[in-house]
Amino acid sequence: MKLIPLGDLIAIAPSSPPPTTSAGIHYTPRENPVYGKGVVVGIGRGEVTTKGWVYPIEFKIGDCVLYDKRDGFSMISGNVMINAKHIVAIVDESAEIE
What we know:
The chain is mostly beta strands. Helix content is 0%, strand content 34%. It contains no helices and six strands. The protein has strands spanning 9-14, 35-43, 64-68, 74-76, 79-83, 87-91. The protein has a six-stranded antiparallel β-sheet with strand order 4-5-1-2-3-6, with no helix packed on it. β4 (74-76) and β5 form a beta hairpin. The radius of gyration is 15 Å and the shape is elongated. The protein starts with 8 loop residues before the first strand and ends in a 7-residue tail after the last strand.
């Protein structure tokens, strides 16, 4: 299913750490209650002001981002739909959230 967000919405595929390490050790990861991490899979065209200007979005499809889970978002087909202003940072995929 192809997801094309509208306005300043962003579609993010949430990432989860693997349940085992490379050495075969099983662990239960702790989930950060404030921030989530995922890969951008869809971007709207941007927020339109009352004067008709469109603010550009600073990231692209495929970027790994941190987003604020405390602000409103919805889940559609396993993807997080969130406003662009709730994206906190662009990070490396190997970065861990503590």
